[in-house]
Each structure stands twice: as structure tokens, then as C-alpha cells.
Amino acid sequence: EWGMEKPPTIEEVLKENSDVKICLVDYQQTTQMNPIINPANVVGVIDHHALQSKTIVTDRPILIDVRPWGSMSTVIAHTFLTHQRRPSIEVAGMMLCAILSDTLNLQGPTTTEWDRQMVTVLSEIAQVEDVQLLATQLFNAKSKELADMSVHGLVTGDQKSFSFETEHFEGDVGFAVVETTNDAVIIDRLEDLIAEILACKKEREFSVMFLAVVNIVSLKGTLLLCGPAEVSLARAAFPDGISNEGSTLMDLGKRVSRKKDYIPAITQAIQGGWSKPKN
Questions:
Q1: Is 243 left (phi over 0), alpha (psi -120 to 50) or beta?
Q2: Low-confidence residues of the chain, pLDDT below 70?
């Protein structure tokens, strides 16, 4: 769409120069950082997520720009403007798509006025006349890619882990999210997805592992539950959630955001005294 070439991978960059300076963008957890990155070479973080657990620790001061906005591209676009720099059409288009994706076309619960303002600015620079059409094209392309993805890719593609230590529970909670325009296509693979969630949970030594499937058109969330611990914690965190007969799915209604809807509720349940079932 924007005529931009695919950038080199981090592996290719570090192979050419192992001492290149690195800025982490859209994350700050060490669990999400490519293992080939040397933390000593990290000089900055630009993000919009909470500093919850396993945040990178450095031995010297670095640039930190973390803002409670809907997208890290909103932060970057705003930085362009405050430095009186005009991004190219191509870069503006890429940032615009990122904001639309992160904020679910400005309809998600994490959307802020800053996101709306940057979409207005970037759409003008990128010469996009119909932002709604662009969002539809973006979501359709993303959903098509997900429909063809392996269950392993779905479970591990957008996954984060969160560490907890309370009087009643100590361990890591894994939480993956799949955003699509057709959640039924994903949920139809429930049996295979549950098996993959269990395998991932064991491999990564999570105490609890969730996968949420979010319909980005109807703004509806569904939680996949792979075992008794997941059922117990989901019921504690989302008492109004509606489970299916086999307790493998929970309808979360209009909850669609891991950052604002899912993890805060899970955190509150755990800190409120939830304990993992013995069986």
C-alpha cells in the first residue's frame, strides 16, 4: 500500500553490527525481547503499556517514553510534530495503520484524544481520504493472514507473560490475544487451540495460560480456557462472563483489550486472594 520495503530482521542487523544501539518499541518486558539482543546495547524504550513485570533493567540511564495512549505510533507521531519534523508519506501511512490497528479503528477502550488527533494529522500527510476504508482493508488483510496461521502461531504470536507473588499465589500468567474480523473461524479450531495452549503452558512453565479471541468489528471478546486453573481464575476475574457447557469458552462481552480489560481484572482477582486449585 505504501511502497515500503520490508526492513531487515534484528538478526540481520546484529550480524552486520553486533554493537548497534537498540530502542525497544511497543514493549519493555524482557520476556518479549529477542534473546540475541544484548541488554547493554538498549538505549531507549518507547511504549504505551504498563510497567507490570519483568521490565528491562539497565546499568545506566536510558531514554524512556511511556505514555498512556492507545498506540506507540501515536507517541512517535507526536514526537515528530514536537520536533517540527514532517514524516514522509510512507512513514505517516505506516504509523496511521499502526494506530488504527492498536485502537481498533479508534473504537477500542484504550483510545485517547491524542490517538484521534494523530490519525487526523497522519491521514492528511499520507493522503488518505477515507480512513474507514483503510481500516477495513487493514483488518481484512490481518484476518485473512490469521485464518491461514497455524495454531502454534495463533497461541504464541501475540503473547505476554505477567508475574505475580501474593500470599495465595506465586507464578506467571501467560496471556495471548488474536484480533480478527471473523472470530468464528478461529474458535472453530477450539480443540486444536486448547491442545496448543496446554503445550505452550507446559513449555513456558506458566501457572495459568489464556487465549482471548477478539472480534474487532463487533468489539466482542471470547476467552479460551484450557484447564481448571484457567476456569477458576476467569470466574474470579470476570464473574459475569458466560461459559459454555464444557467450560472451554467464556463470553466476555464487550471486553476486548488485554491492557485495559483483561490483565487489570486478572490482577485484581489474584491480589484479592485467588489461589490456584489443587486439582
A1: beta
A2: 1, 279
In the chain, % of residues over pLDDT 70: 99
Instruction: Note the pLDDT tens digit of each residue in 178-215.
Output: 999 999 999 999 999 999 999 999 999 999 999 999 99
Instruction: Please tell me the distance from the alpha carbon of residue 155 to that of residue 178, in angstroms, as a whole number.
Output: 8
**Coil, strand or helix: which one is 66?**
strand
CA 242 to chain centre: 24
Parallel/antiparallel/unpaired status of strands 208-215 and 63-66: unpaired
Alpha helix locations (H) across the chain? 10-16, 72-82, 89-102, 113-125, 131-147, 151-156, 183-187, 190-203, 228-237, 263-271
C-alpha dist (Å) from residue 240 to 230, 233, 253: 15, 13, 9
* Cell of residue 43, nine digits: 538505549
